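Form 7-S
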Amino acid sequence: MNEIVKQPIGLARFAWFSLILLLGLMCLFQVLNFLNFADMDFRIYYDASMALRRGDDMFAAWNPDSPLTYIYPPLLAILFMPLTLMPLEIAAAVWTVVSMALLFGCLWIGARDVINRFDGSTDVATVPVIMLVAVLFSLPRIKAEIDQGQVDYLILIGIIGSLALLKKHPVLAGVLLGLVANIKYQTIIFLPLILIRGWWSTFVGFILGSIGVALSGALVIGWDVNLDYLMESLSSILVLFGGAVPDQDGPWVFPLDWVDSVSLSSTWARWAGGMGLSVNAAYLMIALSAAACLMIGWGIYFLNGVSLFRGRSGVRGRTAPSLQGLIALEWTGLLIAVLAFAPQTKMRHMAIIVLLMILVAQFLVVKRGTISRAPLLVMVILFMLAMVLPFQTNSETFTMGPRETWRANGGVVFSLLALLFATVWSGCRWISVNHAHSKTAREKLSHSKGIG
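Output:
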């Protein structure tokens, strides 16, 4: 009874109320906006699904006011087909509610899994407070996501859900990643980690899930049409990385050096073009910068006495609790790598930083002995400023103002990577200290047993 009294019930109620109110109001305002006008990114998915229903080409530009087309595998368009039974505006409003529910699921599953991986000790307020702080840190990106009616939280809940399943249900974790790969291709980046760690059950699940889900589209749109759409969607990847599409009737995509893409890959492509270099120079800069990020992360591990490779294979149910946190750090690092090095990263794609913000929030909320929280707090503040500054912009005149120049030259991504490295440092520091304390406790226990 005394333990129940000590629980911070008031703080928990405040956090839940604030979180639900904040997300609820954002959802309500956007639903009302879409009921009035819904010609946003959502229409790309809606038009593609409508084309599938009619037997038309889902990659065609069906919006007369925009050249943008659907470029993904057919699964997403198939999933959206029930929404095409409604008018565009109502369908967009319904999707807004679904997207907010997916975001809440990401926060709930992610917060609980991350806390469990790092120490497992929580009170009634820990989870809602971490969820609320993560939302506050991500608020501008969440708004941009729902304003456009995008689908990134459908992707993110699959990635976070896979992380949560990894320890006890590795095959299902892989299947979920494979399913998400048929919506957008981001989860392919997890394959190197899965193979290096020797998570063979997860790898088998990924192969079965990705191939099975890809081919299952034939049940809805037919075998030949499904295969054609899969090939055409894969061809769009060639264009994104500077290649040429074999079939000129395929999906229309922006090139690697597209000015609205804030990724380092696009930044290097623009720099290479500006210096009169070939796209191969951009590929070299992408490879060198990716290698530099890996070395920085490896250095952080080394300085904290944490191994990146040795003794890390098969780290699911059999690994020490302290090392479970490393899996969350590496999972998040790969997700951020998608944003940093994707051939096309717009600012709205930053919506998937929610998992990183959950990690940041739990390090700031949960006191961890002598580990200072100040550096991480400073970095997250600087990152939030980097996302909105400079305020001066020439977006209305379609010229490069200070904000566009900052973003086009990697400013946002560099600050995002700095925040990631600060988070990895905090995580590795905690793991190092916790591992040292656990080792000391085991030695004391062994010594006491020896004396007895």
